Amino acid sequence: MSEQQQQFRALDELSYEQARDELVEIVKILELGQMSLDESLNYWERGEELAAYCERYLDGASTRIETALEKRNSAQEDAEEVLE
After folding, report:
1. Which reaction does it catalyse (predicted)?
2. Is residue 68 pLDDT above 50, yes or no?
3. Element (H, E) at 39
4. For the segment 45-58, what is each residue's pLDDT rounded down to a tens digit?
5. Cβ 26 vs Cβ 4: under 8 Å
6. How far apart, in whole angstroms, are the C-alpha atoms of residue 32 and residue 25?
7. Distance between CA atoms of 45 and 39, rounded to whole angstroms?
8. Can you tell me the distance from the alpha carbon of 3 to that of 82, in angstroms, rounded to the nearest whole number?
């Protein structure tokens, strides 16, 4: 493992917001283009990991919202049936 990769925190230690913010910073760093190829690749790989982590997190949040909405709609339908 290179020294550059060792400075990154483990993904499981990051909140969604921390991972997103780190990804934004990595994009800014890569856009500057002032690193060696190896350093750029290390940052790019980290960016890919962060993007995948954020996507999984958002997918999980979306599923939770859909589940909550389904439960609410089901409860409303049940309440309407009782009132009829």
Report:
1. Exonucleolytic cleavage in either 5'- to 3'- or 3'- to 5'-direction to yield nucleoside 5'-phosphates
2. yes
3. helix 37-83
4. 999 999 999 999 99
5. no
6. 11
7. 10
8. 65
CB 4 within 8 Å of CB 42: yes
Which residue carries 């190896």 as its tokens? 38
Contact 47, 27 (CB under 8 A): yes
Between vectors from CA 67 to CA 63 and to CA 73, what angle results, nearest 5°? Answer: 145
Structure tokens at 82: 């009782």
CA distances in angstroms from 23 to 8, 34, 46, 77, 83, listed in the order given: 12, 18, 8, 43, 51
31 vs 23: CA distance, rounded Å: 12
State the pTM of this model.
Answer: 0.73
Single-letter residue type at 43 = Y
- DSSP string over 11-29: GGG--HHHHHHHHHHHHHH
